[in-house]
Design brief:
about 250 residues; mainly alpha; 11 helices
Length: about 250
């Protein structure tokens, strides 16, 4: 997959990062002030650099977990396509992926909270992962922060699930990982800045106007994709931007 084909995925991550602020904002803000041991004196003396290292370590782990999930789903889908009709497999996937984007857009605008129910589906896995996060406390080293991010990336999240469906449609582990990596990088700017500014950015990003504007744009992606499918133009919201996304 090319950089251009992954650009819309990055945009979805960027727009949806207002949801990330609510889901991951608390731990990111905590990372920016947690005590860290065994740092060089020069790093300890430079508070901004110290905070940057904390937040980058956490987000590297988080984005890495997204890429792993994308690789797994893309690989599984590749095997499933060999056992079914490819066109039917893709068509159902397109409806689901775009439907999830619609749900995400409505959730961000506050018009519908059904996404919370979808997120609850991942609780079965999360209840086994969450206890592992406690073993990493205190978060006093970059390695622990990286590991915490890797675990936190599996937190039930409807936004992640919606993009993961798109990763599944790529039909290969490498392309699936690329989609989720692009998405994770899209969420990075907001969470990175939040880690440096703490609750200041969180207050701004949680404003109703910001959430509605982001939600409307995400909703438009999903509706456009559904409209194309219903009018006999197979493909996802990526194809609506004249981009060919499903190239392993």
């Amino acid at each position: 997959m090319t950089f251009v084909s992954l650009l819309p995925i990055f945009v979805i991550g960027l727009l949806g990062s207002v949801h990330c602020v609510g889901m991951c904002g608390g731990i990111v803000a905590a990372l920016s002030v947690a005590p860290v041991r065994n740092f060089p004196v020069a790093v300890i003396a430079a508070v901004p650099a110290d905070r940057l290292l904390r937040v980058l370590s956490y987000n590297a782990g988080r984005i890495g977990s997204y890429a792993i999930a994308g690789a797994v789903m893309g690989g599984v889908a590749n095997g499933a396509r060999m056992l079914t009709v490819v066109s039917a497999f893709q068509l159902v996937g397109y409806w689901l992926a775009n439907g999830m984007l619609v749900a995400l857009g409505l959730y961000l605008t506050g018009a519908w909270q059904g996404l919370a129910r979808i997120e609850s589906l991942g609780q079965a896995l999360w209840k086994h992962i969450e206890p592992l996060t406690r073993r990493l406390l205190p978060l006093d080293s970059p390695l622990k922060m990286f590991a915490m991010g890797g675990l936190w990336g599996w937190l039930p999240c409807g936004m992640v699930y919606s993009v993961l469906l798109t990763a599944t449609l790529t039909g290969s582990a490498l392309s699936g990982a690329s989609v989720m990596l692009a998405f994770g990088l899209g969420t990075l700017p907001t969470l990175l800045v939040m880690g440096l500014l703490g609750t200041q950015l969180r207050a701004v990003m949680q404003r109703r106007g910001v959430r509605i504007a982001s939600g409307v744009l995400v909703l438009a992606f999903g509706l456009l994709g559904l409209w194309r499918i219903s009018h006999g133009m197979p493909g996802s919201w990526l194809d609506a931007l004249c981009i060919t996304p499903m190239v392993p």
